[in-house]
Automatic annotation (TrEMBL), chain A:
Source species: Gillisia mitskevichiae
Signal peptide (residue range): none
Protein name: Response regulator receiver domain-containing protein
Pfam families linked: Response_reg (PF00072)
Keyword terms of this UniProt record: Phosphoprotein
SUPFAM superfamilies: CheY-like
Automatic annotation (TrEMBL), chain B:
Pfam families: HATPase_c, PAS_3
Domain Histidine kinase positions: 274-483
Primary enzyme class: transferase
Residues of the PAC domain: 204-256
PANTHER family: PAC DOMAIN-CONTAINING PROTEIN, PHYTOCHROME-LIKE PROTEIN CPH1
UniProt catalytic activity: ATP + protein L-histidine = ADP + protein N-phospho-L-histidine
Protein name, per record: histidine kinase
Record Gene3D superfamilies: Histidine kinase-like ATPase, C-terminal domain, PAS domain
Signal sequence extent: none
EC code(s) of this entry: 2.7.13.3
Lineage: Bacteria, Pseudomonadati, Bacteroidota, Flavobacteriia, Flavobacteriales
Length: 139, 483
C-alpha cells in the first residue's frame, strides 16, 4: 500500500467515462500520470514510436482497454499489441473494460494471455484502488 | 394308334386334358385328367350342361356354346381362351381347341384339348400391370429412360425423356450434339461421368442442370449403368433421368430462406447486444458519477460532477433516439411493395440532401435506361440511396470533387443497382467483414454514426436481396445491390 503508480493508460472513446476515471485517479492519487487514447490506432502508434527509441515517452504500467471504439476497436488493438509486446522491457498489465455483458466477449477476452481480467463497466471505486495497488506493489 | 389311356398319360404329363366327342351321337366323354381337374360329374345331368353350368366361368358361356355347336356341326374349328372352375373352386385359365384331323373324310370323333395356360396368362397380366405401373410412375415423377449404343454411337430416348427435354416424339437425338442438352457449366461433368461409365463401367447417380431443346434450364437427377455383351465388353450405357427442378428450386429457396433467417437472427442478436451495450455504457457512467459524488469533499467538486450528469443524460437521449430510428426502420417491413421509379426516388433523395450536395459541389450521374423501375418498398429504396450517396460524399477524397455514378441493369432476370464514387475508398482486407456491422466507423470522422450501412444491408436483405462492396484506397468505392 501507499505505492503510487507512475503511468496509467486508458484507451476509450467515451469522453465522459474517461473524465470520470481521470477524476478518480486524481482524487485517490492512484497514478502520477495518465495517458489517454480515444481509439486503438492512436494507442498503437504511441507504442510503436516508443519501440523506435526516438522518444522520451514512457511505457505505462497498466492499460485499461475499451472494446467498442471507432477506427480500431479493442480486439484489433489486442491483435496488433500481441505482435509487439515482447519487444517491451517491462511488464504491462492490461485490463479489458467494457459495458458489454455478452458472454462471447468475455470468453474472447479471456482467450488472450495478456489480458489480466475482463472488467464490466461500471467499475467500483474500491475495485479501481485494489487494481492499482496490486499492480503498483508488483512493479 | 395310341389308345385312350396312353394318350391320356402323355397329355397329362403336359397338363393337357381332353374331351372326345362323337359327332354323330353328340356324346361327350372326359379324359381321366380332365375329370381329375374339375371333379367327377354327377350322373343325372348331361356332361355338357354340367360343364356349362358348374365348370365354365359364366363370362364365356354364350360364346362357348356357339363355338361348340359349330364344332359339332363340323363347320368351324374351336379355339378359345376360357376359365374353368377346378375341384378346389378356383378358376384357372385354359386354352381350348380341337385337334385337327388330317383325313377330313372320316370325322366321327372330335377331340377337344384343354391346355392349362394359367401361368403364362398370369405372367402376361403381370407384365401388362408392371408396364402400366412403370408408365404411370414415369409420368408422375417425370422420369425418362435413355440408352446410348456405344458401338453404333447412337442415342435412344423414350417418350418421357423427349417430353422432359421439350422434344417432339419423332425427335432423333444426335450423338455428336448430345452435350448441348446440358447446361454449359455442367457439360464437362456430364462428359466425364459418361466417359467413366463407357470406359471403366463405373455407374453414376448425380444431379445435373440440363437444357431443353428450347433452351430452358432445369435440374435432373440422372442415373446410368453400363450394358455388357456376352464377351463382357461395354456396348452401351442405359439409365433414367428425372426432372427434379421443382424439388431442387424448392431446396434452393429453402436454403435461401434459411440463410436470410440465420442472417436476421444474427442481426437481432447483434442488435440486442448493441442495445444492452449502449444503454449500459451510460448507466455505468452515471453510477461512476454517483460514487464520485459520495467521495466529493467540497461543493465545487460536486457542481463539477453534476455537469457530467447533464452530459450523460444528453448522450443517453441520443442513444435512445438512434435505437428508435433503427426500430422504426424495421417497422417499414409492414409496408407493401409497389412499382418504384429509380429516377423519382433519386430525385427525392437529392432534394433532401441538396445542401450537402451543393456544399461539396458533388456530381451525381444516373443511368436508369436499362432498368427504370422496380417492385420495392419506396421508403427502403430512398433510404438505401440516401445512405450510399451521403456516405460517398462524406468520405470524399480531399481536394477532389465527389462524383457519384449510379447505374441500374438486369442480367438473366436479375436486377441490380451499382453506386460508385471517387472517394477515399476503404481497405477491405482490413475492414471488409465489418463494413456492414453496427457502430463500425472506420474513419475518425465525427459525423460517423456507424449505423448507415448496417441499416442499408438490413433493408436490402429484408427484401430478399444482397449487397456487396468493392473498393480501392484513394480511388473509390462501388456498392452493388442485387435486388
Amino acid at each position: 500500500m501507499g505505492q503510487k503508480m507512475e503511468l496509467a493508460c486508458i484507451i476509450d472513446d467515451d469522453k465522459i467515462y474517461v473524465n470520470l476515471v481521470r477524476k478518480i485517479i486524481e482524487i485517490k492519487k492512484l497514478s502520477e500520470n495518465l495517458l489517454i487514447f480515444k481509439n486503438g490506432l492512436e494507442a498503437l502508434d504511441y507504442f510503436k514510436i516508443i519501440l523506435t527509441n526516438m522518444t522520451e515517452e514512457k511505457l505505462p504500467d497498466i492499460i485499461f482497454l475499451d472494446l467498442n471504439m471507432p477506427v480500431m476497436d479493442g480486439w484489433e488493438f489486442l491483435g496488433e499489441f500481441i505482435k509487439i509486446k515482447n519487444q517491451f522491457d517491462k511488464k504491462i498489465t492490461l485490463y479489458v473494460v467494457s459495458s458489454s455483458i455478452d458472454p462471447r466477449d468475455l470468453e474472447r477476452a479471456k482467450s488472450f494471455n495478456l489480458v489480466t481480467d475482463y472488467l464490466i463497466k461500471p467499475i467500483e471505486l474500491k475495485k479501481f484502488e485494489k487494481i492499482f495497488d496490486r499492480v503498483a506493489s508488483v512493479a | 394308334m395310341l389308345n385312350d389311356l396312353q394318350l391320356n398319360n402323355i397329355l397329362e404329363d403336359f397338363d393337357i386334358a381332353y374331351w372326345k366327342i362323337n359327332l354323330l351321337t353328340k356324346e361327350i366323354s372326359w379324359s381321366d385328367h380332365f375329370e381329375a381337374l374339375v371333379g367327377t360329374p354327377p350322373t343325372d345331368e348331361s356332361l355338357f350342361e354340367h360343364f356349362m353350368n358348374n365348370v365354365l366361368h359364366k363370362d364365356y358361356r354364350y360364346d362357348y356354346r356357339v363355338a361348340f355347336e359349330n364344332l359339332t356341326l363340323g363347320s368351324e374349328d374351336l379355339n378359345q381362351e376360357i376359365r374353368l372352375k377346378l375341384k378346389n373352386d378356383k378358376f384357372r385359365w385354359f386354352e381350348c381347341r380341337n385337334l385337327k384331323r388330317k383325313d377330313s373324310n372320316n370325322i366321327e370323333t372330335a377331340v377337344l384339348l384343354f391346355v392349362n395356360i394359367h401361368q403364362s396368362k398370369r405372367d402376361q397380366y403381370t407384365i401388362e400391370e408392371n408396364f402400366f405401373y412403370y408408365r404411370e410412375t414415369a409420368e408422375m415423377t417425370t422420369t425418362g429412360g435413355w440408352y446410348i449404343d456405344i458401338t453404333t454411337k447412337s442415342i435412344y430416348w423414350d417418350d418421357v425423356t423427349k417430353k422432359i427435354l421439350d422434344c417432339p416424339k419423332d425427335f432423333n437425338p444426335d450423338y455428336d450434339k448430345r452435350l448441348q442438352f446440358y447446361a454449359p457449366e455442367h457439360q464437362e461433368q456430364a462428359n466425364s461421368i459418361f466417359e467413366k461409365c463407357e470406359k471403366y463401367g463405373i455407374p453414376f447417380k448425380t444431379e445435373l442442370k440440363m437444357v431443353t431443346l428450347y433452351g430452358r434450364e432445369f435440374w435432373v437427377q440422372a442415373t446410368g449403368k453400363p450394358v455388357y455383351n456376352e464377351e463382357q465388353q461395354i456396348i452401351g450405357i442405359r439409365g433414367v433421368l428425372q426432372n427434379i427442378d421443382e424439388n431442387k428450386s424448392n431446396e434452393l429457396n429453402l436454403q435461401n430462406s434459411l440463410d436470410i433467417i440465420a442472417a436476421q437472427n444474427s442481426r437481432l442478436f447483434n442488435f440486442a447486444h448493441v442495445v444492452s451495450h449502449n444503454l449500459r455504457s451510460h448507466s455505468s457512467n452515471l453510477s461512476l458519477v454517483v460514487q464520485l459524488l459520495n467521495e466529493a469533499k467540497n461543493t465545487q467538486d460536486k457542481i463539477d460532477l453534476i455537469e457530467n450528469v447533464e452530459d450523460i443524460s444528453e448522450n443517453l437521449d441520443v442513444a435512445i433516439s438512434r435505437l428508435n430510428d433503427m426500430v422504426s426502420h424495421q417497422n417499414l417491413l409492414k409496408k407493401e411493395r409497389t412499382l418504384v421509379s429509380f429516377k423519382q426516388s433519386l430525385d427525392i433523395v437529392i432534394s433532401s440532401v441538396s445542401s450537402l450536395i451543393n456544399r461539396e459541389s458533388a456530381k451525381i450521374i444516373a443511368e436508369f435506361k436499362a432498368l427504370k423501375e422496380i417492385s420495392y418498398i419506396p421508403e427502403y429504396l430512398e433510404s438505401i440511396l440516401l445512405n450510399l450517396i451521403t456516405n460517398a460524399i462524406r468520405y470524399k477524397q480531399p481536394g477532389r470533387v465527389p462524383v457519384i455514378f449510379i447505374q441500374t441493369y438486369s442480367v438473366n432476370d436479375q436486377n441490380f443497382i451499382e453506386i460508385s464514387d471517387n472517394g477515399i475508398g476503404i481497405d477491405l482486407d482490413q475492414y471488409g467483414d465489418k463494413m456492414f456491422g453496427m457502430y463500425k466507423t472506420f474513419h475518425s470522422n465525427p459525423d460517423a454514426k456507424g449505423i448507415g450501412l448496417f441499416i442499408t444491408k438490413n433493408q436490402v436483405e429484408t427484401m430478399g436481396g444482397s449487397i456487396s462492396v468493392t473498393s480501392t484506397v484513394n480511388i473509390g468505392t462501388t456498392f452493388k445491390i442485387k435486388f
